[in-house]
Design goal:
Strand content: 5-15%
Radius of gyration: 35 Å
Number of helices: 4
Low-confidence stretches: 52-59
Mean pLDDT: 76
Structural class: alpha+beta
Distance between the termini: 47 Å
Number of strands: 4
Largest sheet: 2 strands, antiparallel
């Protein structure tokens, strides 16, 4: 008598499946490790680095330097797209109240987008009061009286979705 695990059909399929799985994990023959640029110990702006052609220079931080922040701090990065975004935002945010409202709105949007990272807890209380009449239909030969029924529910719903793949 043959069991399914010792049958010759399954005996040849298992090594084939194992070989296909191993081949899917192999790195190609032309793989080259990517080069990583060395990083500096510390990066900080200096007053002379605010020109459009200069780049950020690594310098030593002092308490006196950290208190000074330039008006056009984004020029440190020498990025044309950042420059255009900053000029657009300065032109669009003439009113301080509007800018603060946009800041609060963006913070609220961040909170909403992060809310899915945490479990959801809902409390849904309910109360129901019913009065049953003494004149309601009665199939049995007994006398009915009026009744008041109170029903209270306090359900707590907790839900969380696991993100297995990241």
């Amino acid at each position: 008598m043959h069991t399914p695990l010792t049958s010759h059909r399954y005996f040849f399929r298992f090594p084939l499946l194992l070989a296909l799985l191993a081949a899917g994990c192999a790195v190609g023959p032309n793989y080259e490790r990517p080069q990583v640029a060395p990083s500096q110990a510390a990066w900080k702006w200096t007053p002379d680095s605010l020109t459009a052609t200069s780049t950020v220079l690594p310098v030593r931080r002092t308490a006196q330097d950290s208190a000074v922040v330039p008006n056009k701090w984004w020029l440190i990065f020498a990025d044309a797209s950042l420059d255009s975004l900053e000029s657009q935002s300065l032109a669009a945010n003439q009113d301080l109240r509007t800018a603060l409202a946009r800041l609060e709105e963006s913070r609220a949007q961040v909170q909403v987008s992060r809310s899915f990272l945490y479990p959801s807890v809902r409390l849904e209380p309910s109360a129901l009061r019913q009065e049953l009449s003494a004149n309601r239909p009665n199939p049995a030969p007994i006398v009915l009286t009026g009744v008041t029924v109170n029903t209270f529910n306090l359900p707590v719903n907790v839900s969380y979705e696991l993100d297995v793949w990241g």
